[in-house]
Amino acid sequence: MLNIGLIDYLNTMPFHYDLAERLQDVDVHFERGVPSLMNRMLKAGEIDLAPISAIETARNADEYVVLPGLSIASLGAVKTVLLFSWAADMSELDGKSIALTDHSATSVALLKVLCRERYHVEPTFTVTRQHLPSMLAEHQGALIIGDDALVEGVHHRALSHAKGWELPYIYDLGDEWLKMTGLPFTFSVWAARKDKAQALQDAGVFDALYASTAIGLTENGRDTLAQGYAGRLGLPAGVCRRYLRDLRYNLTEDDLAGLKLYLELALDGFQWKSLEFWGEPVPTV
What we know:
Elements: E1 2-6, H1 19-22, E2 28-32, H2 35-44, E3 49-53, H3 54-59, E4 64-74, E5 81-85, E6 97-101, H4 106-119, E7 124-128, H5 132-138, E8 141-145, H6 146-155, E9 159-161, E10 164-166, E11 169-172, H7 173-181, E12 185-193, H8 197-202, H9 205-216, H10 219-233, H11 237-246, H12 253-266
Parallel strand pairs: 1-2, 6-7, 6-8
Antiparallel strand pairs: 3-12, 4-12, 5-8, 5-11, 9-10
């Protein structure tokens, strides 16, 4: 049996638009969870393939192979990786406490890179359960990701603070990265364990994933996903549709350039050539 990890966020829905139907005659099992769980399960060998935090692919480059042409990236605002803060300017967070989501690795490392390279501040960081009100009740900033971030960003509600109920400031990390580098930011890639990649290929899993993604990214595919997911989030279908249209899924040359720069900034001694792409040489960027 082959084990495939899936993330139940709106931004991953195009990948598995009809993936299960395409693999109904293949001996596969699907595991679902947040990105940090997919990271742990792929590392432990409990799953063979998953969309994982981009930084985890680099940290485990000797064990993973990257599927070319598949990613979650943004050129500017991503809407689902947000720092909420009581600070009107990031310079005010120097030495202050920021709560970090326990759902992500890439976004956490991105915030630390931005603090060092763009804002020139040194906050203290604490990983907590992802729940914005409780995070901001105890900290000056809170990093949240995924559907929770999309909903909180759209509603932008007042939250309890020492001085009463206030609207927190919102910093979109995709936008902050673009301002600093002029490049897209790649949050997630599909990675397979090297010892399982050929079996996944032979079983038709890779082909099914690419085909499902192609359908999910059509205009009709995005509309169908937005309509079906909107009620789950309590958001208008138009908001979900716009969100899906703004994301980048194809791991283009520009996305790879942004990914390379990020990994070089986030990981001491990282070498781009350490990555392996399935069926292709390491792209020159």
